[in-house]
Amino acid sequence: MFRRIEARIVSPLLGNKIDLPSYATEGSAAMDLRACLEEPVTLPPSGRILVKTGIAINMMDPSLVAIVASRSGLSLKHGIRVSQGIGVIDADYHGEIGVILSNDGTEAYTIEPGERIAQLMFQPVVQVGLSFVEKFSTETERGTGGFGSTGKS
Q1: 92 is in an annotated binding site
Q2: Helix %, strand %, coil % for the chain, to 5?
């Protein structure tokens, strides 16, 4: 059921103070990433910061991608989210995972060492080849209709 993915520790804090990512429950789709910090760091309102996680991964499979996503509770309670929406970790990247966090809240937020800051999820990848054409070979009912064009609420 599970694929085995290698994790490499790139910080001495892991194993001593910070746990490796793991699934919280049997039904969890993602595992929590933790802040690998020597000391707390404060993120001001409207600020951005790169927070290291202390781990690197080797997916060993180009048909997989790791996705870094926001934690809903952190976002709802404090306005802290993954800056770019999601982070993409390609199968051939073996460096330390860093999470860019933004503070959309009105108050400064202090990130503590070992705090759960984001989620790590693995997804299948489909690579496609694109080519230029003058016209699409098939038409659809929607066509080029964009936002709200289907008339459904």
Answers
A1: no
A2: 5, 35, 60
